[in-house]
Amino acid sequence: MKLLHLDSSILPADSSVSRTISAAVVSQFRTLQSDLTVTRRDLVADPLPHMTLANLPPAHPGSVPGNEADRAASALVLEEFLGADIVVIGAPMYNFTIPTQLKAWIDRILVPGSTFRYGSDGVEGLAKGKRVIIALSRGSFYGQETPYATAEHTETYLRTVFGFIGITEPEIIVAEGIARGEEQRAAALEAAHQAAASLHL
Protein backbone atom coordinates (compact mmCIF):
# COMPACT_ATOMS: atom_id res chain seq x y z
CA MET A 1 0.00 0.00 0.00
CA LYS A 2 1.30 3.46 -0.94
CA LEU A 3 0.71 6.66 1.01
CA LEU A 4 1.48 10.19 -0.16
CA HIS A 5 2.09 12.66 2.68
CA LEU A 6 1.86 16.38 1.89
CA ASP A 7 2.35 19.42 4.12
CA SER A 8 1.73 23.04 3.21
CA SER A 9 2.16 24.98 6.46
CA ILE A 10 4.81 27.71 6.42
CA LEU A 11 5.46 26.98 10.11
CA PRO A 12 8.05 24.45 11.34
CA ALA A 13 6.86 21.08 12.55
CA ASP A 14 7.16 21.94 16.25
CA SER A 15 4.74 24.87 15.98
CA SER A 16 2.44 23.85 13.13
CA VAL A 17 -0.88 22.28 14.06
CA SER A 18 -1.60 20.92 10.57
CA ARG A 19 1.89 19.36 10.34
CA THR A 20 1.44 17.79 13.78
CA ILE A 21 -1.90 16.27 12.84
CA SER A 22 -0.84 15.05 9.41
CA ALA A 23 2.17 13.36 11.02
CA ALA A 24 -0.14 11.69 13.55
CA VAL A 25 -2.33 10.39 10.72
CA VAL A 26 0.67 8.93 8.89
CA SER A 27 1.95 7.38 12.14
CA GLN A 28 -1.43 5.72 12.65
CA PHE A 29 -1.35 4.19 9.17
CA ARG A 30 2.24 3.00 9.69
CA THR A 31 1.04 1.21 12.81
CA LEU A 32 -1.82 -0.41 10.94
CA GLN A 33 0.16 -1.37 7.82
CA SER A 34 3.70 -2.53 8.50
CA ASP A 35 4.71 -2.56 4.82
CA LEU A 36 3.30 0.88 4.06
CA THR A 37 5.35 2.84 1.53
CA VAL A 38 5.32 6.57 2.29
CA THR A 39 6.24 9.31 -0.16
CA ARG A 40 6.85 12.64 1.59
CA ARG A 41 6.40 16.00 -0.11
CA ASP A 42 6.88 19.23 1.79
CA LEU A 43 5.33 21.88 -0.42
CA VAL A 44 7.01 24.70 1.50
CA ALA A 45 10.53 23.29 1.73
CA ASP A 46 10.34 22.24 -1.92
CA PRO A 47 7.71 24.52 -3.50
CA LEU A 48 6.27 24.11 -6.95
CA PRO A 49 6.17 27.23 -9.12
CA HIS A 50 2.80 28.75 -9.82
CA MET A 51 1.06 27.23 -12.82
CA THR A 52 1.96 28.29 -16.35
CA LEU A 53 1.39 26.52 -19.65
CA ALA A 54 5.11 25.77 -19.76
CA ASN A 55 5.24 23.93 -16.42
CA LEU A 56 2.05 21.88 -16.60
CA PRO A 57 2.52 18.10 -16.61
CA PRO A 58 3.14 16.91 -20.19
CA ALA A 59 -0.04 14.83 -19.87
CA HIS A 60 -2.08 18.04 -19.64
CA PRO A 61 -3.70 18.99 -22.98
CA GLY A 62 -2.73 22.62 -22.42
CA SER A 63 0.94 21.87 -21.77
CA VAL A 64 3.48 23.53 -24.08
CA PRO A 65 7.23 23.01 -24.38
CA GLY A 66 9.07 25.09 -21.81
CA ASN A 67 11.29 24.49 -18.82
CA GLU A 68 11.76 20.74 -19.06
CA ALA A 69 12.87 20.43 -15.42
CA ASP A 70 9.63 22.08 -14.28
CA ARG A 71 7.56 19.90 -16.61
CA ALA A 72 9.29 16.78 -15.29
CA ALA A 73 8.65 17.90 -11.70
CA SER A 74 4.97 18.42 -12.53
CA ALA A 75 4.78 15.00 -14.15
CA LEU A 76 6.27 13.45 -11.00
CA VAL A 77 3.67 15.20 -8.81
CA LEU A 78 0.87 13.76 -10.94
CA GLU A 79 2.51 10.31 -10.92
CA GLU A 80 2.84 10.37 -7.11
CA PHE A 81 -0.82 11.25 -6.72
CA LEU A 82 -2.08 8.66 -9.21
CA GLY A 83 0.10 5.97 -7.64
CA ALA A 84 -1.01 6.58 -4.06
CA ASP A 85 -3.72 4.56 -2.34
CA ILE A 86 -3.92 7.07 0.52
CA VAL A 87 -3.19 10.80 0.39
CA VAL A 88 -2.66 12.71 3.66
CA ILE A 89 -2.62 16.50 3.40
CA GLY A 90 -1.72 19.04 6.06
CA ALA A 91 -3.76 22.12 5.15
CA PRO A 92 -3.82 25.24 7.32
CA MET A 93 -6.28 28.03 6.58
CA TYR A 94 -4.44 31.18 5.52
CA ASN A 95 -6.47 34.32 4.89
CA PHE A 96 -9.65 32.24 4.61
CA THR A 97 -8.32 29.74 2.06
CA ILE A 98 -5.53 27.25 1.33
CA PRO A 99 -1.83 28.15 1.13
CA THR A 100 -0.64 29.04 -2.37
CA GLN A 101 1.88 26.19 -2.12
CA LEU A 102 -0.98 23.71 -1.88
CA LYS A 103 -2.83 25.40 -4.74
CA ALA A 104 0.25 24.94 -6.95
CA TRP A 105 0.18 21.21 -6.17
CA ILE A 106 -3.55 20.98 -6.92
CA ASP A 107 -2.92 22.66 -10.27
CA ARG A 108 -0.63 19.72 -11.14
CA ILE A 109 -3.16 17.01 -10.33
CA LEU A 110 -6.32 18.39 -11.94
CA VAL A 111 -5.40 17.14 -15.37
CA PRO A 112 -8.01 16.41 -18.06
CA GLY A 113 -7.76 12.80 -19.18
CA SER A 114 -5.78 11.78 -16.10
CA THR A 115 -7.91 12.68 -13.07
CA PHE A 116 -11.13 13.84 -14.77
CA ARG A 117 -12.79 14.07 -18.15
CA TYR A 118 -15.75 15.80 -19.69
CA GLY A 119 -18.47 13.81 -21.43
CA SER A 120 -22.00 14.23 -22.67
CA ASP A 121 -23.26 13.95 -19.08
CA GLY A 122 -20.77 16.44 -17.68
CA VAL A 123 -17.58 15.85 -15.73
CA GLU A 124 -16.44 12.40 -14.61
CA GLY A 125 -13.85 12.00 -11.87
CA LEU A 126 -11.16 9.44 -12.68
CA ALA A 127 -9.52 9.20 -9.25
CA LYS A 128 -12.29 7.16 -7.64
CA GLY A 129 -11.25 4.70 -4.95
CA LYS A 130 -8.41 6.83 -3.63
CA ARG A 131 -8.56 7.72 0.07
CA VAL A 132 -7.83 11.33 1.06
CA ILE A 133 -7.39 12.49 4.66
CA ILE A 134 -6.99 16.22 5.26
CA ALA A 135 -5.51 17.61 8.49
CA LEU A 136 -7.01 21.07 8.58
CA SER A 137 -6.21 23.84 11.06
CA ARG A 138 -8.07 27.12 11.55
CA GLY A 139 -7.30 29.99 13.89
CA SER A 140 -10.92 30.74 14.68
CA PHE A 141 -14.27 28.97 14.36
CA TYR A 142 -15.89 28.58 10.94
CA GLY A 143 -18.55 25.90 11.40
CA GLN A 144 -21.99 26.26 9.85
CA GLU A 145 -23.40 27.57 13.12
CA THR A 146 -20.83 30.38 13.45
CA PRO A 147 -20.94 33.99 12.19
CA TYR A 148 -17.87 33.29 10.03
CA ALA A 149 -19.22 30.26 8.19
CA THR A 150 -19.37 32.07 4.84
CA ALA A 151 -15.68 33.01 5.15
CA GLU A 152 -14.57 29.36 5.19
CA HIS A 153 -12.88 28.60 1.85
CA THR A 154 -10.46 25.86 2.86
CA GLU A 155 -12.53 22.80 3.71
CA THR A 156 -15.23 23.72 1.17
CA TYR A 157 -12.65 24.26 -1.57
CA LEU A 158 -10.82 21.01 -0.90
CA ARG A 159 -14.09 19.05 -0.83
CA THR A 160 -14.95 20.59 -4.21
CA VAL A 161 -11.54 19.84 -5.71
CA PHE A 162 -11.45 16.20 -4.68
CA GLY A 163 -15.12 15.66 -5.45
CA PHE A 164 -14.46 16.96 -8.95
CA ILE A 165 -11.94 14.19 -9.59
CA GLY A 166 -14.09 11.45 -8.07
CA ILE A 167 -13.10 11.48 -4.40
CA THR A 168 -16.48 12.42 -3.02
CA GLU A 169 -15.86 11.69 0.65
CA PRO A 170 -12.49 13.02 1.77
CA GLU A 171 -11.93 12.52 5.50
CA ILE A 172 -11.27 15.81 7.23
CA ILE A 173 -9.82 16.21 10.71
CA VAL A 174 -10.31 19.81 11.83
CA ALA A 175 -8.49 21.59 14.64
CA GLU A 176 -10.00 25.03 14.95
CA GLY A 177 -9.93 27.95 17.32
CA ILE A 178 -6.18 27.43 17.70
CA ALA A 179 -5.57 31.18 17.92
CA ARG A 180 -8.17 31.55 20.69
CA GLY A 181 -5.82 30.85 23.57
CA GLU A 182 -3.59 28.03 24.79
CA GLU A 183 -6.43 26.08 26.40
CA GLN A 184 -8.48 26.01 23.21
CA ARG A 185 -5.40 25.16 21.13
CA ALA A 186 -4.58 22.22 23.39
CA ALA A 187 -8.18 20.99 23.32
CA ALA A 188 -8.30 21.22 19.52
CA LEU A 189 -5.04 19.31 19.18
CA GLU A 190 -6.18 16.62 21.61
CA ALA A 191 -9.41 16.09 19.71
CA ALA A 192 -7.54 15.95 16.39
CA HIS A 193 -5.06 13.40 17.77
CA GLN A 194 -7.96 11.25 18.97
CA ALA A 195 -9.51 11.43 15.51
CA ALA A 196 -6.21 10.41 13.94
CA ALA A 197 -5.85 7.49 16.35
CA SER A 198 -9.32 6.26 15.44
CA LEU A 199 -8.56 5.93 11.74
CA HIS A 200 -8.55 2.41 10.31
CA LEU A 201 -7.75 0.77 7.01
UniProtKB/TrEMBL annotation:
Gene3D superfamilies, alphabetized: 3.40.50.360
Names of required cofactors: FMN
Q: How is the cofactor bound?
A: Binds 1 FMN per subunit.
Q: Write down the SUPFAM superfamilies for this protein, in alphabetical order.
A: Flavoproteins
Positions with a binding annotation for FMN: 9, 16-18, 93-96
Q: Which InterPro entries does the entry mention?
A: Flavodoxin_fold, Flavoprotein-like_sf, FMN-dep_NADH:Q_OxRdtase_AzoR1, NADH:quinone_OxRdtase_FMN_depd
Q: Which residues form the Flavodoxin-like fold domain?
A: 1-197
Tell me its EC number(s), please.
Answer: 1.6.5.-, 1.7.1.17
Listed A to Z, the keywords are:
Flavoprotein, FMN, NAD, Oxidoreductase
Does the UniProt entry include the keyword NAD? Answer: yes
- Coiled-coil ranges per the record? none
Catalytic reaction list = N,N-dimethyl-1,4-phenylenediamine + anthranilate + 2 NAD(+) = 2-(4-dimethylaminophenyl)diazenylbenzoate + 2 NADH + 2 H(+); 2 a quinone + NADH + H(+) = 2 a 1,4-benzosemiquinone + NAD(+)
Assembly and partners are described as: Homodimer.
Q: What does the UniProt function comment say about this protein?
A: Quinone reductase that provides resistance to thiol-specific stress caused by electrophilic quinones.
Q: What is this protein called?
A: FMN dependent NADH:quinone oxidoreductase
What is the originating organism of this protein? Acetobacter fallax
